[in-house]
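Go through this one:
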Amino acid sequence: MTYLSRIRIDPSRAESRELLASPRAMHGAVIGGIPDPSQMDRVLWRLDTDDPRCPLLFVLSPSRPDWTRLVKAASRLGADGDQAATREYRPLLARLAIRGEFAFRVTASPVRNDPRASTASRDRKDRRAPRIPHRTPAQQLEWFLEHALGWGFTIPDTHPDPAASGPDRPSPRSVPDVRIIGRSRHSFTEGGCDTPVTLHTTTFEGRLLITDVVLLVQAMLKGIGPSRAYGCGLLTLAPPRSQSPHSAGALK
C-alpha cells in the first residue's frame, strides 16, 4: 500500500524554521515518521511554500506513516483541524487512463551529465559522470519537456484568449501549458563530508496529458529526476480545474 500525507508546518516555531531552511534537516524529519527504515529509499517528499504563513509538506510513503513527532515539533500548537492528513494513494492511480488530463505540480532538480567526464566515468566504473545543474529557466523548462514522454505524459498547449488579438495585434501563440513557479538553491553537507552539496531545484506546475499509464505510475511512485531524498521528484496530480492542484486535490 502507498500513502500520500500532507503536514502543515508552522513557520513561527524555531524547529520549523530549521526544517524549512534545510532539505537535509527536513529529510531527517520525514524519515522519522516512517516506521520501517528499510523503506527510506522509497519515500518522496515536497515542500510547498505558496502561503509563507502555512507551508505544506507532502510525503509519499510505501507504508502508513506516523507524524506524531513531526506535528508536535513543527505544526501549529492547539490549532483546530488536522495538522497532518494521510490518504491511500492507489485509488488515484486507479483513475489514470490514456488521454486523461490532470493539473500537476512537481519540484525537480534539472541536471545534465558532464560530457567531459564521460570517458573517465567509463574507465572508473565506480564513479558516475558528474551532474551539472541547468541554471536558467529556459534550460529547466527544456529539460522538463524533453523528459516528459519518458515519464508517461505530454504537456498540451495553452488555449490563447481570442480577446487578446485584434486588427493591430497578432493572435496569441500557443505554448506548452507548464510554468516555473519557484526556483531555489541550497547548500549543505552530508555524511560527515566537508565538501558541501549544492542543490538547485525548480518547481513546475501546469497541465499534462497521459500517454502511458505504466510509465506515469512509475514516475509518480519512484519520483522524477535526481535528489529525491532532498525534496525533489514527487509529482502530484489533481483535476485540471482544481484551484489547488498541489494540495487539496492531491489528497481527494
Notes: The CA atoms of residues 7 and 84 lie 4 Å apart. Helices lie at 14-21, 23-31, 68-74, 90-94, 118-123, 137-147, 213-222.
